[in-house]
Amino acid sequence: MKKSAFRKLIEDEIDDAAGNIMAKGTTSDDIAFGRLNVLLSLRRTLDNKTTPEDIGMWGAFNDILQLLRVLDGNETIFSGIEA
Q1: Terminus of the chain with fewer CB atoms < 10 Å: N or C?
Q2: Is 66 exposed, middle or buried (0-12, 13-18, 19+ CB in 10 A)?
Q3: Domain of life, per the record (predicted)?
Q4: Domain limits of the chain?
Q5: Nearest residue to 75 via CA among 58, 60, 62
Q6: With contact defined as beta carbons under 8 Å apart, do 29 and 18 qualify?
Q7: How far apart are CA 48 and CA 36, in angstroms?
């Protein structure tokens, strides 16, 4: 998937998660907030503005997916994104 199309998809997901925080109750707020944290981290990563926390989080996700053999050892979670 092209990076620009993927970023647009992420923006839509961020808007949706933020809307859920405003529209629903406490439990849904917590779920949407967790989702929003991951999506905002992903957007920063796509924009080359990662924080140390972002690097650690995506590294952990990547390691887990490799351990589960969802990704090959030479793949990363971002391998499918084209410039």
Answers
A1: C
A2: middle
A3: Bacteria
A4: 3-51
A5: 62
A6: no
A7: 18
